[in-house]
From TrEMBL:
It holds the Pfam family IF2_N. Residues 47-85 are annotated as: Disordered. It comes from the Bacteria. This is Translation initiation factor IF-2 N-terminal domain-containing protein. Keywords: Cytoplasm. Residues 57-74 have a biased composition (Low complexity).
Length: 85
């Protein structure tokens, strides 16, 4: 696996380069710009951290999903009149 540039990986993961650079600094990796290259083990770690192409925050910092508003229950269909015998 060849070295990958920060901006290329950011595009692949659906995040902006600046947030990916911040994450790299948190991991102890020195990156000077979005054109900096990243070693393959670090690329694997970032791909595990960010969902593939999700464009969302890393799983650890994602807020819990709020329940979807429930739709009002459908009114029962009117019953057909009873047939006279």
């Amino acid at each position: 696996m060849a070295k990958v540039r920060v901006y290329e990986l950011a595009k692949e993961l659906g995040v902006d380069s600046k947030s990916l650079m911040t994450k790299l600094n948190e991991l102890g990796e020195f990156v000077r710009s979005a054109s900096s290259t990243i070693e393959p083990p670090v690329v694997r770690k970032l791909r595990d951290t960010y969902p593939a192409g999700g464009g969302a925050k890393p799983a650890a910092s994602r807020p819990a999903a709020s329940p979807a508003p429930s739709a009002s229950p459908a009114a029962p269909a009117p019953s057909a009149p009873a047939a006279a015998a």
